[in-house]
Amino acid sequence: MNEHLHLTDIVNRLASQITEQEGRDRKRTSEAQTHFLQGIEHLIIQLWKGTQIHEGYEGDINKRASWYSESSRYRDPNLTFKQTVAAYEGLLKLGLIQETRGGYFNRENLEGSITRFAANDELLSIFSDIKEDPFIAIQPDLFSESIILRDKIDGKKQQIDYLDTPGVNEMRDNLFLINQCINSHYPDIRIRDDEWLPLQERIMADPNKQPIDLTRRKLVRIFSGGRFERGGRFYRGWWQNVPSEYRPYITIAGKKTCEYDFSQLNPHMVYFLRDKELGSEDAYDRVFDCDHRDLVKEAFNAMMQSSTPLLKQPEDIDLSEVDFDWPFLRQAIMDAHKPIQNMFFKGHGTYLQYVDSVMTEDVMLRFAKSDYAPVLPIHDSFVMQHEFAESDELEEDMRRAFYGHFKKDIKIDDKIGVILNSSADEKEWGGLSFEEKFPRQPEYSQWENRNN
Fold first, then answer.
1. CA angle at residue 123 from 118 to 128, to 5 degrees?
2. Cα(438)–Cα(452) distance, rounded to whole angstroms?
3. What DSSP designation does 379 have?
C-alpha cells in the first residue's frame, strides 16, 4: 500500500469494493453516495481509533431505522439508515469486520442493545499502513449539538428537543469557544507505553466508565428534568474517566498540569443561597471532628440531592467500616449544619449543579477568551497547566464567579480549593520546567510521538 495512505483513501477504496460486490444495476445518486461514504467512514473511524485504545476494541451501529429519523438535533444528518446499513453489510461481506453482538429492540418496554462489531486481521493490516495517529488525525465535530436537554419519559431518561432561545444560543456559542480552546491545546496523558493497556483494562472494569479515547476532546453540557435550570454540568471529555491517581500525568499542549479541587463548593453555595456564612471550619470535618470526611461529604451531597427524607440508607453509601448507622450520620450532618437544615431533602442537588456549571462556564470562558491554555473540568475540580495554579489565577477567577452569581465574596482566608499533586508526579517530571521540552525517552514513545 501507499506509504502516505490516509483514511479518505481507505474509505473511497472500500466504497468501490462494496459497490462492486453489490452488483448494482444503477449507480447511487450523488446524495446517496455522500451518505454511503459517510456511513463507511463512521464505521471505519471507530475501529481505526480503537487500534490505539485497546486490543479487540468494538465499534457499534444502530440498526433501528427510526433512530435515524428521530430528533435531528442530536444526530449526524449525513448518516442515513439505508446507506449506513449498506456500508455495514458490505464490510461484513468483504470479511473486514465481524459482528460480535447482535442488537435488538423491545417495542413493549422500549429497551434494547446496540449491534457491536470488531475489525478482522485484514482491516487491521490496512490500518497499519496509515502513517497518521488517529488520536491526532480524528478531530471532534465542534459544530454538532453540544447543549443536551434530558427528561424522564415513561420512567426513562431521554434526550428531548427544545427551542433555541437567546440564552441557549449564548451557552452554545460559549461552549464552542471553550471547545476550540481545548482542541488547539491538545490534552494528553503522559504515562509509559507499558502502562497504557493495564490502565485501559482497569477503567473498562468499571461499567460506568469508558476507556480513554483521546479523540473525545469536545465537551457537551447536559441539563436534566426538562429544564435549563437543572444540571448543566460538562461531560464527555476523556480526562473525566481517568482515575484520580493518574490525573497528575495529564498534559495540556505538552505541558505539566495540576488539579485544583474545590473541596467545599456545594456547602459554600448552599449557605450563600440561604444568605448565611459557612464559617472558617471545614464543612465536612465539623461533623465528626475531622473524622470520616469523605463519607460525610458523600452523605451531605446525597441529602442535598434527595427530594425525600431519605430515612433509609442510600445504596451507594457504605457504612461497613464505621461503628454508626445511617440515622446517626444523617442527624449528625443536620446538627452540624443547622443554618441550612431546611435545604436538605428538597431535591436541590440538580439546581446546585446548575449554579456550579454557570461558574464553571465563567472560568473556562475567561481562559478561552484570553487565549490561555484551557482548564479541563472534572465536576468539583479543574485540571490546568501548572503555571496558572501557581499564580492563583484560577482561584481568583472562581472567586469572581462566586461573586457574579451570589453578589457575595468568599472570605479571603476561607479555603475554597487546594492544588492536588503527588510524589509520583514530581518524581516522573523531575526538576524540569514545564516551559521546557522533555528529552525523548523510549518508554514514553507514544506520548512523545503525539506531542512532538
1. 115
2. 10
3. S
- Which residues does 438 contact at the CB level (< 8 Å), separation at least 6? 432, 444, 448
Among candidate residues 133, 148, 159, 305, the one with its CA nearest the CA of residue 236: 148
Pairing status of strand 147-153 against strand 220-223: parallel
- In tens digits, what is the pLDDT along the chain, a chain of 452 residues? 445 678 999 999 999 999 999 988 899 999 999 999 999 999 999 999 999 999 999 999 999 898 898 888 999 999 999 999 999 999 999 999 999 999 876 666 667 789 999 999 999 999 999 989 999 999 999 999 999 999 998 888 899 999 999 999 999 999 999 999 999 999 999 999 999 999 999 999 998 889 999 999 999 999 999 999 999 999 999 999 999 899 999 999 999 998 888 767 889 889 988 998 888 888 999 999 989 999 999 999 999 999 999 999 999 999 999 999 999 999 999 999 999 999 999 999 999 999 999 999 999 999 999 877 899 999 878 998 888 776 677 778 888 888 888 887 765 455 556 666 543 444 455 444 444 545 667 899 999 999 98
**Which residue blocks in 337-440 are alpha helix, DSSP H?**
349-369, 386-390, 393-406, 423-429
Task: Tell me the C-alpha distance between 420 and 331, whole Å.
Answer: 31
Amino acid identity for residue 341 in this structure:
Q
Q: Where are the beta strands (DSSP E) in 124-171?
A: 147-153, 156-160
| CA gap 323, 321 in Å, rounded | 7
How many C-beta atoms lie closer than 10 Å to residue 193's C-beta?
Answer: 13
Question: What Rg, from alpha-carbon coordinates, does the chain have?
Answer: 25
Sorted by where each begins, the domain ranges of the chain are 7-138, 166-266+349-450
| H-helix or E-strand spanning residue 245 | none
Residue 39, all three cell numbers = 456511513
Residue with cell 496509515: 130
In angstroms, rounded to a whole number, what is the distance separating the alpha carbons of residues 362 and 369?
11
Of 50, 183, 202, 222, the closest CA to residue 127 belongs to 50
Query: Which of the 8 DSSP states describes residue 278?
Result: -
All 3 cell numbers of residue 70? 428521530
Question: From CA 190, how far away is CA 257, in angstroms rounded?
Answer: 11
Looking at the whole model, is its pTM more than 0.85? yes
Q: Is 216 exposed, middle or buried (0-12, 13-18, 19+ CB in 10 A)?
A: middle
Which residue, 91, 98, 97, is CA-closest to 15? 91
